[in-house]
Structures are given as C-alpha cells and as structure tokens.
Amino acid sequence: MDLAVVDLAVIGAGAAGCGLAAALRQRGWSGSLALLEIGRGPGGRTATRRSRHNAGFALNHGAPLFNITAAPEPHLLQALRSEGWITPFAGAICSLDAAGRMGAALPDPLTSGALWQGSPGMDGLCRGLLSLAQRTAPTPLLSGSLVRQLEPLAAGQGWRLQGNDGQALLECRWLVLSGTLLAHPRCQTAFGWADVPLQQAAAQRGEPQLLAAAAALAAIPSQASSNLLLSLSEASAAAWRQQPWRLLQFNAAAQERWGIRRVSLQAMAAGHWGLVVESSAAFAARHLQVYGSRSSAAQLLGAAPEPQAEAQVIESLDRQLRAALGLSTAGAERQLMRWGAAFPQAPGLPSTLSLCPDSRIGFCGDAIAGLGFGRVEGALRSAEALAERLLPLI
Q1: For the packed helices 15-26 and 376-390, what is the interaxial angle rounded to 10 degrees?
Q2: Phi, psi at residue 108, to the nearest 5°?
Q3: Tell me, what CATH number does 353's domain have?
Q4: Cβ pair 248, 289 in contact under 8 A
Q5: In the chain, helix, strand, coil percent, each to 5?
Q6: 28, 95, 186, 377 - which has most CB atoms within 10 Å?
C-alpha cells in the first residue's frame, strides 16, 4: 500500500493544532491536512475526560477555563462564540489561605481578563475549531497516533513521520509541531527514549535555523502538575454542591502547606459532580515519574505503570484536600492524570524561529514567546500568526 502524502501534517490536536487548521481554512487554504494526536480525541490540556462505560462522566481534567487578556482577541473566537462552542465562565472564583480561611479571588495570569469555557465541556473549544476547519475542506483527525521519529526527506521535499515501532505513518510536504513533547528532553525521562526526535532530525537536516529552534525548544523549562480526578455521586456530593466557589485558588502559603495549587468543582450528568485537584509545582516535581495508569504513556507506549506509587500520590492529594477543606470524599471514584509540562516557563521560543522555511517545519503553541505565553490565549494567537506566515508558502 502506498504511503499517504499530505501537504501539511500537524502533530498535536490541542488548541494550537486545531487552531492552526481552522485559521488556514478560514483564510481559504484547501490543501490536504492531517492532525495527528496521541490521545483519544482533540483538546490537549483543554480536553474533557470521558468514560466508555459511563456516558454521563465528563470532567475537564486539564484546564477548567481559558482567558483572553488583550484586544483584539484571536479572530477564531468570534465564530466559536456565535456557534456556541464556547461560553463565558460564570462560576465563582475564591481563594484559600494556609489557615483554611476562604477569601476573594487572587490575581492570577490564568484567571485575568475575559474568562471562557468550552461547551458543553472544555473540549468544545477544539471540537469547534475542527468543525470550522472541516467546513471548507476535509481535515482528518488521526487519534491514538504516536509519532516517534521525524525523518527529513531530501532537501525541500518535506518529512516522513514514523510511529513507536518504526512504522511509517505518513509523509508530508510541510510539518508543524503544536507542542513541545517531541522537542524536549522530558520525552527521554518520561518514555525512556534514547533521543529527542526534533534534535535528532535537526542534526540530520543541518539547517541553521532549525538547529536554533530545536535548541531553544529543548531549553524551555516547564512546571508539571499531578491532577487528582474525583467523581462524586449525587449523595456524596451534597456538601460540595454548597460550596460558594467553582474554582478555588490556594495562595502561596496554602500551596506549601497542602501541596495543592487549585481545585475545580464541576457539575456532571445525573446529579454527579467532579473535582479536579491540581497539585502545586513542588508536589508535582517530587512525583514526576508517577503518570497514572490511564495515561497515553501507559496505553500507547507500553510504559509499565507503578500501581503502588500511583496509589500513594492519589491518597496524598485526597488526604490534603480533605484536610484543607474539611469535606469528605468518601465513595468517590479516583484517578490520576499527570501533565508533564502543564506550564512552560519564560522565555519560550522566539517567534522568529517559529517557522523554518528551508526545512519546511513550523511551531505553534503556548510555548511560543509573546502575548498569552503559557496559556490557551498564546496557543491560539501563535496558531493564527503561523497560519499567516505559512499561507504564501504551502
């Protein structure tokens, strides 16, 4: 069977990858495009965790909302808003101090400006972006696709993408990485890989701008987050429903005491409620190797889970949550989600390196320096900016 060849392959179907596809289509580009995503569906950190066994389970397990801090807003938001893919975040935000006292919301880069959420779940953001893209030309999403190697073809010919077992997935004339996993050494510590795919490809290609981009991406520090997901029945959620907040921030002293950064409280179907307990950066740093048995690392890479370590992290976060708020989680279904690079740290990738024309590769996402860096806003803005630069070339 002949290997599929597309004009553009985008690795990662989070806000940046889906935003790039939508932005190109909105600008009239109708070339062949494929999105490759390691997870089961679009969203990335704006995904909504769902269950094959419980249709009512839907939990925004990465980001409970996103914010836009400056005008003009990303152009893509207008269509998403008008079609109901995003709605204003209306939940109350409160804070907690180290004495367990509740107060007003704290200044926070993640909750300043205009607050939005996907509808009906956070994955509505990326599903809406894909809907916009697919309206004018086929834009397939290849879920469960792990890209392990980036093979540069002859000069000016594009790329061949290979899977975890060395099998060829597809070839593309242009390639975009919408996240940093394949560019950062954390893939070696998380997955046991012997190399960093982008660094290896850049060395093969030898093109100076790509070498500079690969080095800059590899040097970006990031904070991890260990997220405890709790599902509460209607009866066990009674006390939680009475809370005056839907997002609770822990101040610096509270984070140090309990190891929790914030907690999101979310209504689900049939009277069920969900809690997402996001760890502090310090807590996550102490447990970087504990990723959760339901993660992509376990399911696609065959990484051996560590049930005892996972159970200890779950119990620790659960215990600290109960201690901080004095509320019971008895009877809750519990699982762990580890985000290895939840929050990239400055300076990020300079925008001048976000497109390497001679190597036919580009980069977008929240790790690109500029307005919205480290947030969904930055992912969307970088996607639109890259679309403008790509359009005359592809």
Answers
A1: 40
A2: -155, 130
A3: 3.50.50.60
A4: no
A5: 30, 25, 40
A6: 377
Is residue 159 within 8 Å of residue 150, measured between CB atoms? Answer: yes
pLDDT tens-digit series, residues 204-220: 999 999 999 999 999 99
Q: What's the rounded Cα separation, in Å, for the pair 244 and 246? A: 7
Helices 197-205 and 208-218 pack at an angle, to 10 degrees, of: 160
Domain assignment present for 151: yes
Neighbours of 330 (CB within 10 A): 8
Q: Which ranges in the chain belong to alpha helices (H)?
A: 15-26, 76-82, 124-134, 186-191, 197-205, 208-218, 238-241, 252-258, 281-286, 296-301, 307-325, 376-390
Which phi and psi (to 5°) does residue 27 adopt?
-90, 10
Which residue range forms the structural domain that includes residue 368? 5-47+123-220+346-390
CA 121 to chain centre: 14
206 part of a folded domain: yes
Tell me how far CA of residue 346 lies from CA of 38, 121, 170, 217, 266, in angstroms.
Answer: 26, 29, 33, 11, 31
pLDDT tens per residue across span 72-123: 999 999 999 999 999 999 999 999 999 999 999 999 999 999 999 999 999 9
Angle, helices 15-26 vs 124-134, to 10°: value is 30
Total number of domains in the chain: 2
- Joined together, the tokens standing for residue 303 give 């990484």
User: pLDDT by residue (tens digit) across 336-366?
Assistant: 998 888 899 999 999 999 999 999 999 999 9
Looking at the structure, do residues 294 and 150 belong to the same domain, yes or no? no
Res 300 pLDDT > 70? no
- Distance separating alpha carbons of residues 248 and 265, to the nearest angstrom: 8
Which is nearest to 350 in space by CA: 367, 335, 333?
367
Look at residue 60 and tell me if it is in a domain: no
- In this prediction the pTM is 0.96
Query: In the chain, pLDDT over 70 holds for what percent of residues?
Result: 96
User: In angstroms, rounded to a whole number, what is the distance separating the alpha carbons of residues 250 and 264?
Assistant: 11
